Amino acid sequence: xxxxxxxxxxxxxxxxxxxxALMVLxxxxxxxxxxxxxxxxxxxxxxxxxxxxxxxxxxxxxPRTNQEFRPGEDPPDQLTRLDAEALLKAKRGDRQALMxxxxxxxxxxxxxLLPFSADARYTSADFFPMFDVPFLYGSGWNxxxxxxxxxxxxxxxxxxEKVFGGGNSVGKTLRLDGTDFRVVGVLDKWRPVPKFxxxxxxxxxxxxxxxxxxxxxxxxxxxxARSGNMNCYDNRVEGxxxxxxxxxxxxxxxxxxxxTPQKAxxxxxxxxxxxxxxxxxxRFQRPNNVQMRDLMGFxxxxxxxxxxxxxxxxLAFGFLLVCLLNTVGLLLAKFMRRSAEIGVRRALxxxxxxxxxxxxxxxxxxxxxxxxxxxxxxxLGLWAVRQQPVxxxxxxxxxxxxxxxxxxxxxxxxxxxxxxxxxxxxxVTPAIQLKTQ
Length: 437
Fold this sequence. Notes:
single chain; alpha+beta; 2 domains; six-stranded mixed barrel; two-stranded antiparallel ribbon; 13 strands; elongated; cell membrane
């Protein structure tokens, strides 16, 4: 029966080519616009660590003075070096890592390659296993290297190809800011979207990952240049640098892995107890103000999806709705023009349900053709997005999930558009139609 209904739909399309073309075009335009913006939203709002994000938490502590205190205000997004190192030393999580961004001068040994600057991340040993960072060669350093302020470095795959020609460079020497480092690992391709572990290094956190990873303790030992936001909330003691331990400046990110909900609750209690201790010691002045959100909660609060992307998506779906309303009118006109044919079918024994199903199949057929054309328009729209000068533009690509969503949306949209015209068509009274012929 389904094949028969599709056959009737095909015959109807041939009889009303212009009307059918208008309906296909309306659905295609709506689907193309909606899928372009929905794909961008899907890419930017995805889980950067599926299956593990619920075990990663971002603790925040408020060390600020009572100056400009406002009750209910969130704690700073970053930690002081003193607090970050204290939490790292406490080792109360399954894994924990402190970090900040930086930049170093790479001085290759190759005569044909001039020195160049590269983005770096200064962090601790757990960074790599905690974030499931893939390695092409070697591995990260261990906690002993952190303690020893070792001259170890992990390089990105791109930098390894540029400096070492792409081979296994583990054990080789790389000179950074005038100091020799030993390469202990080479990353495979890795670009978390967004770059969740540090949203301070770019406007919305969709930049490339760093080219070099060094122990944080080593970076401070060599006083390497740092980058990223830094906010100082009090006057510093004379001679104390903003990056020194004890400086009243928040500039470090800290992540902790807690594998069970009970461990998360225990860590929350630990943070509150730590804050109480600092207040009792006279270092903290404000009432207890700590937060700890899991990875996805942190990304939602940080609003990593740009506002213009949200607005564009809702405008596109509004445009799709307008297209569907036009399709409803066209389908209604088409089905009502066939009232005589429907009346004959009803007189020959076709039920109202059969007429309703036939009309819906015809609407879905229009939707599927419109979906194919809309898919082409979406691909064209994503290409246009990639030409924009925004940091997330290069990520705008259609994946299998969104490909399936395109056709699902086309079917649902066509069913929505065809429901009312199909219901009106099945209400045709056979006797009246037969009398008029």
